[in-house]
Amino acid sequence: MGQTSSGNTLSISNNKHMAMVSEAKVNGGDMEAPATDLLPALAEKPLGLPPGKYSLVGWDMDTTGRRLIDEICQIAAFMPKQTYTQYIMPYGDLNPGARRRHNIRVVTVGRYRMLKDTITHKILKTKSEISALTDFLDWLEKEKGDSKVILIYHEPRRLSPIMLLEALIRYKLLDRFKSIVAGFTDSYALAADKCKTTVKSVSLRVLARVLLDADSLSVDSALDRATAAYRIVEHLAQGEQQEVGAGGEGASASKDMVETARVWARPVLTELDALDNLKNLLERQNTFRPVFAPLLRAARPERKRVTQLRRILAEAGFLYEQLRDAWEEHKLTGLEKQLGLLSVSAKEEDIKELIEIFDCHFDPTKEPKGLKPRLSNRNRPTSSAGETGEAEGSTSDSQKSSPQNSPTKISNDVSAGDTSQIEAAPEPVAAN
Fold first, then answer.
1. Which InterPro entries match (predicted)?
2. Is residue 168 part of a domain?
3. Of 361, 338, 367, the residue nearest 351 (C-alpha)
4. Same-domain pairing of 168 and 232
5. Which of 34, 153, 160, 228 to pair with 356, CA 20 to 30 A apart?
6. Which of 87, 182, 96 is nearest to 136 (CA)?
7. 75 and 190 share a domain?
8. Are 127 and 34 in contact (CB under 8 A)?
9. Do residues 194 and 78 both lie within one domain?
10. Do 397 and 53 contact (CB within 8 A), yes or no?
């Protein structure tokens, strides 16, 4: 049931291709970044919202992964006088990264699938996704009064709003949501601007320690993250001469806080445009499946590199058919001419690697030039809540979820540099 509580609750089939996948750049940050080095939250300053009456709500959610097909497994919201949290029973299992980050997993007891807390080992009370989203909208409608809501969250890649909107579209709740919520404010972008001279990282943990004096903030729960995001905006709006929470524990948002959130907000329509752009990008990526699908069966470092190269092509507007036609007409020269257009947005080594991969793909007689040296797993990047993407792959904690149980969705990874292809319908043979 929805819980509303008072108070401040904080074998690779194509081995020759693998030689083309350089691992020289496989080090934490580069592999987590998209084709452009600038994080989506910082790529452009928010448009802001027009002046008006707004209610501020800290918000976050846990998901089974970072693809559009992935489901919400907890949604939470924070206001100084009220909080809302609800666990959701997903059709599928959480991927390994999501399990570690949120400390929950799907288990099977007899004939029933349940959500279990891996710390307390307790079975969690859950609802279906549509019921939880409906309850969430009911709660927002009740708390907002005669104002519009601005949802405050903390994330560098702007994934949560997109995934929430995709879920609302799936259940035909978008129109109601737009009548309640005016926009989203990302406290990551706000903190990156306000604290750029004082802190090197604006992750949730660092900001909680520096700004909120919370040395041991737990970020595995959506409610804790929603609370921290709200308090961070509250602190930054108050300025350096006031203590956080000076208005009292149950005090509502101050005028300065509302104004700060309003100026740094992105309207719902802006996030819907971002969702449409992402779907178009993923459609273009999907055309390269014949080339990259075999490479995505490799180890994680190679997968990360492959998805980065694939995203470079998709962001430049290329389609598989274009490169195939160029090779058929002019062979290697045609490929070099087409991919040479990437010189504006891509590095020279990326272009060379893409030329080699496609040349070997279209000409099976060509052999790879040799494997690049592999980096140690000890340097593998680790996930940090609210800061980096997901771990790869998905293993089942219970029985494999059957396709007939899951609603039809678009299967696309929206984590940085690791988007997988559209899977609205099963494909023959040949991605997170």
1. Exu, Exu_RNase_H-like, RNaseH-like_sf, RNaseH_sf, SAM_Exu
2. yes
3. 338
4. yes
5. 34
6. 87
7. yes
8. no
9. yes
10. no
- Give 44-86 pLDDT, tens digit per residue: 889 899 999 999 999 999 999 988 889 999 999 999 999 999 9
Give helix then strand counts, H and E, for the chain.
16, 10
Check whether residue 179 and residue 260 sit in a common domain. Answer: yes
Answer whether 77's CB lies under 8 Å from 59's CB.
Answer: yes
Distance CA 70, CA 163 (A): 8
Instruction: Indicate the pTM of the whole model.
Output: 0.74
Q: What are the structure tokens assigned to 90, written together? A: 């997903």
Q: Pseudo-torsion of CA 316, 353, 393, 412, nearest 10°?
A: 10
Q: Which of 362, 381, 414 is at the close of a domain?
A: 362
Q: What is the pLDDT of residues 4-42, one digit of tens each?
A: 444 433 333 344 444 444 333 322 333 333 444 567 777
142, 227 contact by CB (below 8 A): no
Closest CA to 98 of 391, 388, 382, 384: 391
- One domain for residues 174 and 229: yes
Is 40 contained in some domain? no
Distances (CA, A) of 241 to 235, 244, 268: 10, 10, 33
- Per the DSSP assignment, residues forming a β-bridge with 85 are 3, 76
Q: Are residues 257 and 332 in the same domain?
A: no
* DSSP string covering 322-348: HHHHHHHHHHHHHHHHHHGGGGGTS-H
Nearest partner of 350 among 321, 307, 389, judged by Cα? 307
Q: Buried (b) or exposed (e) across 271-302, using 16+ Cβ within 10 A?
A: bbebbeebbebbebbbbbbebbbbbbbbebbb
Does residue 416 form part of some domain? no
Tokens 């961070």 sit on residue: 232
Are 345 and 260 in the same domain? no
